[in-house]
Amino acid sequence: MIRVCVEYDVESIYDIINDAAQAYKGIIPEDRFYEPYMSLEELNVEIMNGVLFWGYEVDNEIVGVMGLQEKGEVSLIRHAYVRSNQRNNGIGGELLAYLITLTKKPLLIGTWASAFWAISFYEKHGFQVVSQASKETLLRKYWHVPEEQIQSSVVLTNDLNFI
Fold first, then answer.
1. Tens digits of per-residue pLDDT, 88-106?
2. 161: helix, strand or coil
3. pLDDT of residue 163
4. Positive or negative, the Cα torsion across 86, 97, 81, 152?
5. Most buried among 31, 41, 89, 129, using CB within 10 Å?
6. Host H or E run for residue 79
C-alpha cells in the first residue's frame, strides 16, 4: 500500500534513507558520503521546505519512501529509497509510478552520476538524462547543492521538451 507519510513516520523515513544510502559508500565522492547519510535535522528541513514523502507499506511497515517537491513549473522526485532487504521487489517502481500520477508538470530527478543502478532504474521508467549544460542549469535553479555535487551528479526528466 502506498500512502502519504505523516509526522509519525519521520523516524522510519530517516531509517530507510540511511539504510538504503549505504549503497553509495565507496561509490560517490568520499567528501559527499556521511554517516548518517542524512541527519534527522536535514530530513526535517527537507520536509519544512516542501518535500512531501510517500511511503510503501508491507505488513504495516514502511519499507520504501519517495518524496515529491513542487518547484514552480516542475516537480522534483526527492529522496527515493527502499530498505536494502526489500530491494528488487518493484517497490521503487510502484512509488515512482504513483508519484508520476500526482502531477501534470515535468518531473526532474537528480542523482549521483556514479549511481549507475539509480540512473538505470529511472531510464527503465521512461526518464532520460539531460545534457551537461541543462543539468548544471537545472541543479542551480531547483536544488541547493554545492558546486562539487553539481559536477558529480546527473539530472533526469520525463519531459525533454521542457528543457
1. 999 999 999 999 999 999 9
2. coil
3. 81
4. positive
5. 129
6. strand 74-82
How far apart, in Å, are the Cα atoms of 100 and each of 17, 37, 114? 21, 26, 24
- What CATH topology corresponds to 2-157? Aminopeptidase (3.40.630)
Cis before 106? omega within 30: no
Q: What's the one-letter identity of residue 153?
A: S
**Alpha-carbon distances of 56 from 36, 45, 50, 92, 114, rounded to whole Å:** 22, 22, 19, 9, 26
Can you say whether the dihedral through the CA atoms of 143, 2, 90, 160 is positive or negative?
negative
> What CA–CA distance (Å, rounded) separates 163 from 131?
9
Residue with cell 539504510: 19
In the DSSP assignment, the letter for residue 32 is: G
How many residues are present in the chain?
163
Sole residue written with cell 530491494: 87
Cell of 99: 508519484
Exposure string for 62-84, b = 16+ CB within 10 A, e = fewer: bbbbbbbbeeeebbbbbbbbbbe
- Beta carbons within 10 angstroms of residue 107's beta carbon: 22
Against a cut of 0.85, is the pTM above it? yes
Question: The cell 519512501 sits on which residue?
Answer: 65
